[in-house]
Amino acid sequence: MTSPALDPPESRKARGAFFTPPAIARFLVDWAVRSPSDRVLEPSCGDAVFLRAAAERIVSFPSDRSSAFLHGIELHGPSARTAAEALAPWPVSSRVESGDFFDFHPAHSYDAVVGNPPYVRFQDFSGERRVRSRRAALEAGVNLSGLASSWAAFVVHAGEMLAPGGRLALVLPAELLAVHYAAPVRRYLLDRFSDVSLVMFEQRVFPGVQEEVVLLLAEGSGTSDSILLSQVVDASGLAELARSAFTKRPVSGDLRWGGAPLEADADAAYAQGCELAGETLGDWGRAFLGGVSGANHFFALDSTDLKQHGLGNEDVVRLAPTATRHVRGVALTAARLAAADRAGGKTWLFRPGGKPGTAARDYISLGERTGVHRRYKCRVREPWWQVPLPRVGHLLLTYLNADAPRLVENAERVTHLNGLHGIELHHGRKTLGSELLPVVFPNSLTLLGCELIGRAYGGGLLKLEPGDVGRLPLPALELLRDHRLSLRGLRRELDRRITGGDWHGAVSLVDAELLSGMMGLDGATVSAIATARETLRSRRKARSAEPASP
Ligand SMILES: C[S@@+](CC[C@H](N)C(=O)[O-])C[C@H]1O[C@@H](n2cnc3c(N)ncnc32)[C@H](O)[C@@H]1O
């Protein structure tokens, strides 16, 4: 590895230089390099971990390797020199050049392009280098937005280096699957290659790096409308990864390529469940973000705070508790708000209507003395102490979830901050949806949808963006209408189980009533769905564990 003196951490970060564990490089190279005459390109080769693996691979073939060629490109001069030195002893023709990959024209000549492109977020990826990378992608017909991180253009330009039938094997950030700015890259891959496979990891495999990664294996000319997905625990699982361990998933470039893959039986059970449920949350209503106060410690209050500062009803509005552990049961009622308040939950938002009275003015001065008005969200609004309120949702859904997302009826029609999403139900569905969607929500099918559609966030949390929420499977209007009496009968018992901490019991109850009873799914299908949900939930939690250093 290039010595830290020649390559200090700040310089590495600016170039997106994180080095690939050898087991991962070897796996990708062994897949991509298939003959002793292969021409291999590594477009951001660092210290040549991939190229060394490629040399070893070429040498392992018994036949003539005189036309094999290994080509490395690396922006950082000292790393390029280290790479060249590392390749010198190998009996394979090679060249390492110090330069910007985007200065190299699409060669359409390599049999394999392998590597781990730099990951630099758009905020830090600027200037001429970004312009050049976007131009290169555009030449391949891919229009990347200004929000794209550096790896996106790398994928496209790397693809354009391949000869027809060539293979692309890259380590990429898992955001390839999910983020909106990566949609043109997803489309490019489906348009350019006939076979696109991805390998995901249950645990983080780059020591010290937060970002989750996936391995991309793309080959064959032509187009595809599905991808093959597989998941291994960590890099050691790659050695035994068999072709049969991949599950086919139909995809489009525009939509996310889903979260974790499912076993084939669970995949079929989920598809059947979605079909019988008949609708999604998007059919019922629209999710939207909560308000942003800019300083919850100042704006979100409990009744002790109100007393202490002499604030009255005219100075505050009622707020759904900011800590989502207080958002439980099927409905956020007046009694539940009061209970949350007694338990220290913040259920009042400082928001004087009209001209603030004396107590409110004093409280505003306190905010100014303690610098709240200089906080980012506060200083950009006028007056700084007036938090913009979102619409009032019929339902409230938790945004970041340690276990499972919770959906409650907003019975008191209170406002909410951004730890919750509001859901506004469509016309003709408001009464039934408010009353019964929180009853049917805790079922294994919808919760499996949350795991598949949501995104794993730091610390093993599950994050559901408003755009994701609309795709969660839920029973159709007619189904709820037909069964509204029995579902109503379930409300009290369900509420008792959830608030009593028996979440598992609550889900079993809804699975039995809704999935087996009303939707008619057989026992094996319900159990495949429930098991898959539990597996994905545990994997998500396991992923928050740090990898051991190699
Ligand atoms: C994630 S590191 C990977 C290095 C090596 N491929 C590995 O896996 O260990 C990305 C590398 O890309 C290099 N790099 C960044 N921008 C580049 C560019 N425009 N052209 C060529 N190399 C670049 C960085 O210096 C860094 O060495």
CATH level 4 superfamily of the largest domain: Vaccinia Virus protein VP39
Total DSSP E strands? 21
Give me the number of helical elements: 22
Number of domains: 3
- Tell me, what is the CATH class of the largest domain? Alpha Beta
Largest sheet: 9 strands, mixed
Q: What coarse outline follows from CA principal-axis ratios?
A: globular
Would you tell me which CATH topology of the largest domain applies?
A: Rossmann fold
**Mean pLDDT score, rounded?**
91
Q: Please state the second-level CATH architecture of the largest domain.
A: 3-Layer(aba) Sandwich
Strand residue percentage: 15-25%
Strand order of the largest sheet: 3-2-1-4-5-7-6-8-9
Q: Could you list the spans in which at least 5 consecutive residues all have pLDDT below 50?
A: 546-550
Range of helix content:
25-40%
> How far do the termini sit from each other?
15 Å
> Helix/strand/pairing class, anyone?
alpha+beta
Estimated radius of gyration: 27 Å
Q: Which helices and strands appear, and what pairs or packs with what?
A:
Layout: H1 9-15, H2 22-32, E1 39-42, H3 49-60, E2 69-74, H4 77-87, E3 94-98, E4 110-115, H5 127-139, H6 150-160, E5 162-173, H7 175-178, H8 183-192, E6 193-201, E7 213-221, E8 226-232, E9 247-250, H9 264-277, E10 278-280, H10 281-284, E11 285-289, H11 296-299, E12 300-301, H12 303-309, E13 316-318, H13 334-342, E14 348-350, H14 358-369, H15 376-379, E15 395-398, E16 400-401, E17 407-409, E18 420-425, H16 430-440, H17 444-453, E19 455-457, E20 461-463, H18 466-469, E21 473-475, H19 477-482, H20 484-499, H21 503-518, H22 523-542
Helix pairs in contact: 2-3, 5-6, 6-8, 9-22, 16-20, 17-22, 20-21
S-adenosylmethionine binds at residues 15-20, 44-46, 49-50, 73-76, 79, 100-102, 115-116, 118, 129.
